[in-house]
From TrEMBL:
This is Bifunctional transcriptional activator/DNA repair enzyme AdaA. The gene is adaA. The keyword Transport does not apply. The lineage of its organism: Bacteria, Bacillati, Bacillota, Tissierellia, Tissierellales. Signal peptide: none annotated. Coiled coil: none annotated.
Length: 189
């Protein structure tokens, strides 16, 4: 179904994502083009021009919006944001102080981050961090001669009791039982 320019304008004003990829609009006053779902401030109707493809918009001299990224085939801002947060967490999860600073530097509010993690991963950021820490601890327990206390601290836990409590909750046994369990399995092979 072909849309008239007036219908396209209405779609753009409503930020209707179901029309993304069907057309693009350029804003003459800014020289920027967007997807119909762009959440930027709605331009005046007489400042808008419509294109069937992103290439047409670029050929007409418009540059892609940095907010809705119409130049990308697939734009998933939530997924990109969560991947960025996961990358920071993956790098700094063993250093709680540095992790806090790095996450604050991303410019994502605590509530938004919690919502994103719940929506995209089905867990909170804290649960995700604890999962990484426990996975690292399991690896160190089996492959190092370090004490349980040293491993707990190395994985970013502030206390041995917190480490034991979380380890037992996530693994179903204490760190010592975990090591014994794997040593028995190894001996049987």
């Amino acid at each position: 179904m072909l849309l008239s320019d007036e219908e396209k304008w209405k779609v753009a004003i409503d930020c209707d994502s179901s029309y993304d990829g069907q057309f693009f609009y350029g804003v003459k006053t800014t020289g920027i083009f967007c997807r119909p779902s762009c959440k930027s401030k709605s331009p005046k109707r007489d400042h808008m021009v419509f294109f069937d493809t992103a290439e047409q918009a670029q050929a007409a001299g418009f540059r892609p919006c940095k907010r809705c990224r119409p130049d990308l085939l697939k734009f998933e801002p939530k997924r990109e944001t969560i991947e960025g947060i996961k990358k920071v967490i993956g790098k700094f999860y063993t250093d709680p102080k540095q992790l806090k600073e790095e996450i604050e530097g991303l410019g994502v509010s605590k509530n938004s981050m919690i919502r994103l993690f719940q929506d995209q991963l089905g867990m909170t950021p804290v649960q995700y961090i604890n999962k990484l820490r426990i996975e690292k601890a399991k690896e160190l327990l089996l492959n190092s001669q370090d004490t349980v206390l040293y491993i707990a601290l190395q994985c970013g836990f502030g206390s041995l009791s917190t480490f034991y409590r979380l380890f037992r909750r996530l693994v179903g046994m204490s760190p010592t039982q975990y090591v014994r369990f794997f040593l028995k399995r190894k001996d049987k092979k």
